[in-house]
Design a protein that fits this description.
Strand content: 35-45%
Helix content: 10-25%
Number of helices: 5
Low-confidence stretches: 1-33
Structural class: mainly beta
CATH class of the largest domain: Mainly Beta
CATH architecture of the largest domain: Beta Barrel
Mean pLDDT: 82
Strand order of the largest sheet: 1-2-3-4-5-6-7-8
Number of domains: 2
Length: 205
């Protein structure tokens, strides 16, 4: 079974290197081609009715996961518009500002807005979370976004799905992990790290 997005995800290298067993130095290199522009679309978008569409980056292409359905590759058609390669085809059209999208099928159209979290709240999550006696995850706030970096590992942006729940992705696949923040009665912050399959760990500052 592939080992993906567990403690070692933050502790040693990219999740891609865990999944593919490749050289960490190679895995850490940024993707080429249009990836830098495509990265601006990554995030979670709340659709009409409360469903969530998660937009991820796999290599040099976008992938959409809508309401828990299987991830679908997005093929660019025009600027800001993509066709989903799925059993039931649909089109994803992004607003120029990248903060909104619309998912269009043969019979329906749903608008969605990128989910964000208040910067003041994000600041409460920053700090150092020990992972073991020798490893720690450091969360910093940069340009309004949380960035996670573990001892000796690469940096990973966190994308909000609510004010307390975030996802982090493996850009070499569609593997996703979730981090959910909270606080003990005494105010001490903690994060619950959930990997695919349901396994989870709790770390405290």
């Amino acid at each position: 079974m592939r080992q993906v997005l567990a403690l070692a995800f933050f502790a040693t290298t990219l999740a891609a290197s865990l999944a593919a067993n490749v050289n960490p130095a190679v895995a850490a290199q940024p993707p080429t081609g249009q990836a830098s522009e495509l990265e601006t679309y990554i995030g979670a978008y709340e659709l009409d009715g409360g469903a969530v569409a998660r937009i991820m980056l796999r290599g040099n292409e976008l992938v959409a996961e809508v309401s828990g359905a299987l991830p679908a590759r997005l093929k660019a058609t025009t600027k800001g518009a993509f066709e989903a390669q799925s059993v039931t085809p649909y089109t994803v059209v992004f607003a120029e500002a990248r903060d909104q999208l619309r998912i269009v099928t043969a019979t329906s159209s749903q608008a969605g807005r990128r989910i964000t979290a208040p910067v003041a709240l994000l600041g409460r999550y920053t700090g150092t979370y020990p992972l073991s006696d020798t490893l720690a995850m450091v969360l910093t706030l940069e340009s309004g976004r949380l960035i996670a970096q573990a001892t000796g590992a690469s940096r990973h942006p966190l994308f909000p799905e609510s004010s307390t729940r975030f996802f982090v992705q493996d850009s070499a696949s569609t593997d996703v992990a979730h981090l959910e923040f909270g606080a003990d009665p005494d105010g001490r912050a903690f994060v619950v790290f959930r990997q695919m399959g349901g396994a989870q760990k709790v770390y405290r500052k």
